Amino acid sequence: MNIKKMYLFLVNILLLFFLIFLLSVQQLNIYAVIYAVSAALLICHLWLSQNKKTTKIIFTIIYLLIMSAQQVFNTLFVFSGTDAGIVFLMKKITAVIFMLVPFCVLYVMYLYTIQNVFSQSVKDAATISFNTMKEMQKSAVSLGDKLKKGRSSLSRENLNEIMEDIPRHSYTKYVNKNSLTDAFFEECQRSLADEHLYIVISSTGSPASELIAVFTQKVYNHVSISFDRDLKTIVSYNGGEKISPPGLNQEQVAKFHKKDDAEIIVYSLKVSKEQKQMIIDKVKEINDTGSAYNFVGLVTKFSVRPNIMFCSQFVYNMLKVAGLEYFQSPATKIKPTDFVEKDYYRKLAFCYRIKFNAL
Predict the structure, then answer these.
(1) Which residues face 222 on adjacent strands?
(2) pLDDT digits (tens, 9 = 90+) for 275-292
(3) Which of the listed CATH numbers 2.60.40, 3.90.1720, 3.30.70, 3.30.360 matches domain 168-358?
(4) Where are the alpha helices (H) located in the chain, listed in sequence order?
(5) Predicted confidence (pLDDT) per residue in 53-75, tens digit
(6) What distance in Å separates the CA atoms of residue 172 and residue 191, rounded to the nearest whole number?
C-alpha cells in the first residue's frame, strides 16, 4: 500500500469512527461544540478572504443564524423526547447531515466570489451567472430526485432490517465456512463443457442494495458470477438471507425478487476450461478457509483479511485469479456496474435479462 492509499485509508477510518462516535452520543453538548467550532472556523476563513466588507458581514450573519438554528433544532427536536431506538438514531443522523449546511453556504459564497470578483466584463458576469444558475438548478433537481428515491430506501422498515443484520457481520474474522455444498461443486465441474463464465448484475430491492443505491445512484447494486448459463451455480458475497452467515454463498434467482421492478442482466465472458477450473478451485478454497462480507469495507475501501469481501470485490478478484480482468482498478473500489461500464474492449456478450414483474 503506497503513502497516498494509506493516507486515504486512515482518513476514511477516522471519518467512520467519527460518524460512529456521533451516532453513539447520548448528549447535546458534543453537537453544540461542533456547530460552534464549524461556525467560528468558517467566519475566520471568511474574514481572511478577499471579499468586500459588506459581503463578509452578510455571510457572517448567515453563519451565525445557521449555527443558532442548528442549536435550536438539536435542543427542541433531536435531544428531546425519545432518547433510544431507531427514532433517536434517525434524529441524530439528521443532526449530522445538518452539520453540512454551513459548508454548503461556503460553496455558494465561492460561486458568488467567482461571479463578482473575477468576472472581467458585464458579458462574462452574465455568462457565469447563467451557467451557475443552470448548474445549481441541475443540482437542485438531482438532489430532489435523490431525496425522492431515497425516501423509500431509507424507510424505517429498511433501516430496522439493516440495523438488526449488522451484528451478524464481522470485519476481522471469518464467520462463514463450508456454505457451498458438494452438490454445488459437482454442478460447477459439469459446467466445464461450457467455455464461458457468466457475470450477473442485479437490482434486487434488498434493504442493503436500496441503501447503497442512494449513494451510488445506480440501478444495479449487486453482482454475481455463475459457471453455467442457467444460473444453477450462481455465487457471490452477500448477507446470507439470514440462513447462512454473511460471506460467500450460493444464490437463488428467485430470492432476487424483493421489489416489483427487480431484474437481473446476464453477460457471458469467453474463458478456457483451465481458467474456469482455476476460478472454481479458488471458490472452493475460500469456502474451505472461511469468509465474511466486507460491510465496513463499503465505506473504508479496505479489507483486513483476504476472504473478507463484498460482491464486486469478489467477482473482480475471481477474474484476476484466472487472468481474466478486462479493466484495471483496485478491487475494493469497484461498483457492480463497473463490470459493464468499463468493458472498453467489449469482452462481455449480452445473454438475457429477467424482469420479474414481466413473469
Answers:
(1) 202
(2) 999 999 999 999 999 999
(3) 3.90.1720
(4) 3-24, 29-47, 53-73, 85-98, 101-117, 122-153, 156-165, 182-190, 207-216, 273-289, 297-300, 311-321, 338-341
(5) 888 888 889 888 888 887 777 77
(6) 34
